[in-house]
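tmp note - Nucleotidyl transferase domain-containing protein
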Amino acid sequence: MIRAVILLGGPSRKASYGAYEQASPLFPVSGIEIIGHLLNAIQKMPNLKDFVLMGYYDKKCFLQFQEKYQKLYGKHIYYVQEQSEMGTAGGLAQNLEVLFEEVEDLLVVHSDICCDLQAQKFYEYHKSKSGICSIMTVRVSKEESTRYGCLIKDPNTDQLIHHAEKPEQYISNLVNCGVYLFNQSFQTTILNVKAKKEANLSEELQDQPFVKYIKRSTDLDKSYLSLENDVLKLTERDRVFVYEHTGFWQSIKSTTDLLNANRLLLQYYRQNPFLFNNPEFEINGEGVLIHKSAKIHPTAKLGSNVVIGAGCDIGEGVRIKNSILLDGVEVKNFSFISNSIICYNTIIGYWCRIEGEVQFLGPCVIVDNELFLRDVICLQNCRVSESKDGGCLM
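out:
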């Protein structure tokens, strides 16, 4: 049996969609929560026991999500709440006995990714190897590679040779997808790494007490542990194997990433409509996903890569492309929207133009008539009464 663990992280102001009122992993992309797409792919595994959501969000944030997907898939979804930011491995190290109870392997997935996750294929690869860990990777462009953890593998055995987290210069275009499989032996490995870090930290603080004033707080926290920077660096290389994913993959760290993920998922579901698990939406050949309760004027032109949420009202002559409109958005006649995320219950006036590289309008925003917005981030409950080129409106 296998247990799937989704690493949620916690509240962060780094991402511009942090203006969204709920937890970031619950942000809807292509009509489904970001982590909903991951659960949809994982639940197809025949030997899956259950799901564990792990993070330092308040557990109340995920109650509705848990109830919804437990009914949908018939699998228990537990939530393990961390009391503080513990890193990508701190929560795992603290809950190893519970996580490995009654299962042989652990599938660990970061919540801030989007991909056509072929979980069963990855699992079969993992079982064919004798290592304690398998890492899912993907090829990206040379320019993009330094944004992620870069890996070098043995081309004959797939064993990990070298790993560098966000290197300053190009090392490899093979990058970490944030998806892992661990067997029971991983428990010993991570506990050894944790003990070694604690011993080194205690010795460092004892010999040089002033170090606490020049180091980051997470570096001084004994409960903080990183899969990428701590565990992988100290794990025996001949016991870690690298699996190369050949489908699409997108890390989601910003509003731009959200729109890219939306585009990739719409293309994927348009080609594989039987995999889309939200019957309240309909997708057409232009890559446009529309909730059945939305009102679209016949003269409005949508697409490509557009999502229209529940209860939206799109007026006469409106043009929308490469955008996400969440529930309850109203766009009045003859407005133009491009490369934008428009959150709940926002109202766009007549003859408005919202365009640029990326725009984000938070919940309950009102944009007055005949305004022009380019590259603007607007926080919730704002009224926009004048045109703006760049910047953040509060």
